[in-house]
Amino acid sequence: RFSNAVFYNTPLIAGIFQLNATVASKEANNGPAIVGRGTTLAPQFAANSTAAVVPYSLSATATTGPFAAYAAYERNAVDTKLWSVGASFKPIPDLKLMGSYQKQDQEESVLINPDTKAWLIGANYTIGPGLIRAGYGQKTPDNALGSPTIAKTKQVSVGYDYNLSARTYLYVDAARKKITPTTTFNFYSLGIHHNF
Q1: What pLDDT, in 10s, does the model give residues 73-84?
Q2: Residue 148: pLDDT above 70?
Q3: How far is the CA of 141 from the CAs of 115, 117, 152, 153, in angstroms?
Q4: pTM of the model
Q5: DSSP 34
Q6: d(CA 19, CA 7)
Q7: CA diameter of the chain
Q8: Nearest residue to 100 (alpha-carbon basis) of 74, 52, 138, 145
Q9: Which of 23, 41, 49, 99 has a Cα-to-Cα distance from 188 of 20 to 30 A?
Q10: Distance in angstroms (rounded) separating the CA atoms of residues 117 and 84
């Protein structure tokens, strides 16, 4: 997600580990003004201005047999920091179990609810040319509403992919998102995906 960046991936270490690094240029990328700790007339990060920090990311992955895991850290141009860890396990060839946890720190640019924590669990199951997907996750707090008392956001989703070829598949998805005890949204999607 970084513009004007340099990426480096190490070769596999011991056939299991790989390290990845990204460093980007110090610029605003034509982004909008961010008031943050500033004011509307003097925003902390003005639009089209030089950003305060150099964006970068670091990650490490490990894969051995049916088990895989990763850990990652990222800091963007407005000093938002994101930590993330995740793992997957395949108890049988057709079933993949997954989980992840992340924390986002926006203390340098957001006054209300600067910390967001999220986790999810999911599973994929292959049946012939198709793939069944299911997941459940929570996020707290959801800073988008800007309320210091907002409850956890919860979402459950299911989906099905049907492979037409090695590069093309049909998909159908359904999800239910609950923001407060009285606010729930349902999402549905149907489409075709093709890799060129």
Answers
A1: 999 887 889 999
A2: no
A3: 7, 7, 6, 7
A4: 0.80
A5: B
A6: 11
A7: 59
A8: 138
A9: 99
A10: 10
